[in-house]
Amino acid sequence: MDFLNQEFYNLIDGALVKAQKGGTMNIINPANNKAVAVVPKCTAEDVALAVAAAKRAKNSWKNTYVGDRAALLYKLGALVAAHAGELIPMETAQYGGPVSKTSNFDIPAAIGEFELMAGMGRSVTGTTITADPTARILTLREPYGVVGLITPWNFPLVTAVSKLAPALITGNTCVLKPPSCAPLTVLKLAEYAVEAGFPAGVINIVTGPGPEVGEAIVTHRDVNKISFTGDSRTGKRIMELASGQVKSVASELGGKNAMIVLDDAEIDAAVETAAYSAFFNSGQNCGSPSRFYVQEGIYDEFVGRFVRAAGKIVVGDPTDPKTMMGPLAYNACRDTAERYIASAKKAGGRLLLGGERPETPDMRDGAYVCPTIFQVYDNRQEMMQEEIFAPVVGVMKVKTADEAVDLANDCRYGLCASIWTRDYRKALKLIDRLEVGTAWINQHLKIVPETPWGGCKESGWTKENSMLVFEEYTFHKHVWLELSEQPHTFWETMLDLN
């Protein structure tokens, strides 16, 4: 999976171009820390050109019939499907996602996003208000105009599409910055957009470092809306920068998600889901559970089986179809995970599984961390409070369901959580108390594009997917149509019009 001989370009104003100043950056395969591709390294100059192109195109795109916009999205999705054989190894090489994941989830999910948004976006409507019988009052759903999309590296293609598709179908033009370490599949999407026939300036894609390219997008006066997915620290920085222009920001940020397992849980389902959802994509998923609160009556059995199941996860070469868990996305992610592991040990956590790098010759040079499970005794230690974004989790014993919910809420994040019990009445009462955007009962990490996704507290406040996503890319314009021949005013008996 070496793409060094391929040329990758930005997309600006309908043309595939290099960075204005000729800069480039290497893309590193985290499985072996070798360069696999070279891409443009843009600056604020490239961003200015992209925004100018999007601004020129915004009125004509807004006034394009929604069915024609949908047809282009369908065509782009079809091109992704047609090039799946090219995209799958590219997605795997740039961030280490096992080929079993990139082929069965990443690429199909991107295609599905295009198809779903193209279909649902044709039915976006405004409202009528019957407050005054002398008028017709309505709201129109207006696109923001130029939107800036900044996307993460853990699901490079599908997260880009999940922003791009609803933004486009609602009539916005876009400037998209893919992740610096994993932009390859999004740059290929740029090529497919040209082939699909999108008008110049409707889609613009620029690559480069976040502190320069991302901030240039956020602060540009002609970018009217920002949508960002990533860590909470960067999200706060973006909101700070955008506040200077009172710019709308959609933020889908980090999570420190709880899985609550009660005494009457179906243990087979709970263990299987725990092992999958905690270590899927090497734990690099904002919805993965990394805090487990297990009621004391089932604690020993659940933890023992959870540790055994996690120990059977096949860690290895992400190009091998049998691999279940590959490397982390880059070395700094591995180093951060190892720092949290050391912190957990120092804080008195009991290591139940993992805690080290694989030492086999084929993994020694990569950004690997083995599945790691700690027994934790203090909910305030880092292991239970900070988003590690790695295959490192903590489990705690609790006496009651109420205690588990209190501990789950004792965190600055509020993305998602799950409750495992056979008693649905009890589960629904507990879910009413959970401070999260998504709550599952006897499920975790089940996310489909038809359902909304997004959190509360420091996990952000946006909603992606479902019909709710269109709220993020449109604003409501109020229109008043006066029907009476002489509108009523408080001055009508005082004002001499003759």
Automatic annotation (TrEMBL):
<keyword id="KW-0560">Oxidoreductase</keyword>
<dbReference type="InterPro" id="IPR016162">
    <property type="entry name" value="Ald_DH_N"/>
</dbReference>
<dbReference type="GO" id="GO:0016620">
    <property type="term" value="F:oxidoreductase activity, acting on the aldehyde or oxo group of donors, NAD or NADP as acceptor"/>
</dbReference>
<dbReference type="InterPro" id="IPR015590">
    <property type="entry name" value="Aldehyde_DH_dom"/>
</dbReference>
<comment type="function">
    <text>Part of the sulfo-TAL (or sulfo-SFT) pathway, a D-sulfoquinovose degradation pathway that produces sulfolactate (SL). Catalyzes the oxidation of 3-sulfolactaldehyde (SLA) to sulfolactate (SL).</text>
</comment>
<dbReference type="Pfam" id="PF00171">
    <property type="entry name" value="Aldedh"/>
</dbReference>
<dbReference type="InterPro" id="IPR016161">
    <property type="entry name" value="Ald_DH/histidinol_DH"/>
</dbReference>
<protein>
    <recommendedName>
        <fullName>3-sulfolactaldehyde dehydrogenase</fullName>
        <ecNumber>1.2.1.97</ecNumber>
    </recommendedName>
</protein>
<comment type="similarity">
    <text>Belongs to the aldehyde dehydrogenase family.</text>
</comment>
<feature type="domain" description="Aldehyde dehydrogenase">
    <location>
        <begin position="18"/>
        <end position="479"/>
    </location>
</feature>
<dbReference type="InterPro" id="IPR016163">
    <property type="entry name" value="Ald_DH_C"/>
</dbReference>
